[in-house]
Amino acid sequence: MKDQDETTRVTGNATTQLNDYKKFHALHHQAKPLILANAWNAKSAQLIEQNGYDAVATSSGAIADSLGYEDGEKIPFVELLYMLQRIKSRTTIPLSVDLERGYADDLNALTSNIQKLIDIGVVGINLEDRQGEEIYLKKLSSIKNYLEKTSQKLFINARTDVFLMKLPSPLETTLRRAKRYADAGADGLFVTAVADATILKEITAATPLPVNVVGTPQLSSIETLTECGIKRISMAVFLYRATYHQLENVVKNIGTQHSFAPLF
Q1: Domain annotation covers residue 140
Q2: This prediction's pTM
C-alpha cells in the first residue's frame, strides 16, 4: 500500500507539473506579453500570486543576496533548491527558475539538476550563455535530449548576454545565437541589456522564439515593449531592490525621527 501511495503521489506531481508547463508555454503565445515578477522567497512569491500574476519567476541575484551570497552561482545548488521548494510549496501558479549557467559544467550533473527542479514542480528555466555559444549549445542539447528521453517538459528560456558583455557586432551575434538556439530546441529567447526599441524590433522580427526582456528605466513602458514584439517582460532583481529600498527608508526614518511612526 505504501509503494502504491508513493506511485500515486509521484504521478500526481508529474501531472501537475505538465499541466503547469502547458499553461506557462501558452502564456508566451498570446496577444499581450507575459509579465513576470521575480520572487526570492516564499512570501514574495505568495504576494505575487495574490496580486493576480499568471506565473512567478525567481531572480538568482535576489535569492543569493537575501541569503548573503554574491550572484553568479555562489549559492550552493542545495540551498537554491531548498528556497525553490519553499516557493513552490506556497504557490499554485507556474514557477520558472533563473538557473544561471545550470550550476554544473558536467552534463550528467546538469541533467541531474534539471530533474531535481522538475521533481519539485518547476516548469521553466533561464539558462545563460556567458560561457560562449558552443558550450551553451552542448548544455542545451543535453537538456533537450534528456527531456525527450524521459518524456518530460520544461520551458527553456535561452538567455543571451551578448549586449551585456559588450561583445563585437552585438546585434549580428545575437541573431546568430538566436537561430542556433531555436534550432537546438530553445523555447524562448531572453535578451539582456538592450535599451533600444529599434534593436528589439529587429530581434523579434528575426526569430520565431518569444522574446523576453527586463523592464528598464530606458524602456519601462509595457505598451512600448509590446509594440516591439516582446512576449515576456521580467522584473529581475529590481523588484527585490525596490523592496529593500523601502525597508531601508523605514529603518532610516525611525532613527532620524526618533519615532516608530514610519512603521505604520
Answers
A1: yes
A2: 0.94
